[in-house]
Amino acid sequence: MNFYYNLILNLNEFLYEFYEWKSEEILNVKKVPIYRVKTKNIKDFYLYDIKVNEEFLNKIYKKSISSENIDYLAVFSDNKNSIAIEFNKEGKSIFKSKLDLDSDLTICELSYNLDFENIKYEKIKKTYKYNLNLRQEEIERKTVLKEISNLYQEKNLEKLKYLYYEISNVICNDLDKIYKNIINIIENENFNNLNYIYKIIKLSYKKEH
Predict the structure, then answer these.
(1) Which of 9, 65, 178, 194 could tie 97 with a disulfide, CB 3.0–4.6 Å?
(2) Following DSSP, what letter does each residue of 100-118 receive, concatenated?
(3) What is the pLDDT of residues 13-43, one digit of tens each?
(4) Are strands 48-52 and 2-9 parallel, antiparallel or unpaired?
(5) CA–CA separation, 91 and 85 (whole Å)
(6) Which long-range contacts (CB under 8 A, 24 or more apart) does 167-174 make?
(7) Where are the domains of the chain?
(8) What is the H or E stretch that residue 122 is in?
(9) pTM for the complete prediction?
(10) Could you give the CA distance from residue 50 to residue 32 in angstroms, rounded to a whole number?
């Protein structure tokens, strides 16, 4: 069994992006089992309430450690997206959580080295209108804006200069001006290099961790 350590989750009936989490709803997880599954499985886990069989339920019983007493918890990834699910003793999914950007990137990277887990489950009912492809641009834009905001608050001029140059091909040393200009550019729906900037930010996370 493979584990991931030191993770924060927002287990809820509804899936929220990590930048929408409320601090009082965050769960600190010290240890949780992780499984590599196929993309079809991930889509099912996003869209439906599911019920896993007893064999899998027994595998994950009390294998996680967190700030709350949770008996059945696991994280699933297809190398592109990840999701955490809490199950009840009957094997039904009761709460789910997306991951913060850092953990999501790391777990997706780690899962490349894992064997596929053939998890037997049944779909109970559709609970979430979510299209992993159609919403990707929205996720990328909000992720980039959050990163830019964090860098500005940290007064990280070097990183902002680099991103601004990649976006506009302009060299600037004014922190406030860079921040204002980047925000205006990224918020423009006609900006066509969003995915490129998003990948730069993802790569920077990988290098730092």
Answers:
(1) 9
(2) -HHHHHHHHHHHTTSPBP-
(3) 888 877 778 888 899 999 999 999 999 999 9
(4) unpaired
(5) 11
(6) 167/193, 167/197
(7) 2-126, 136-208
(8) strand 121-126
(9) 0.67
(10) 19
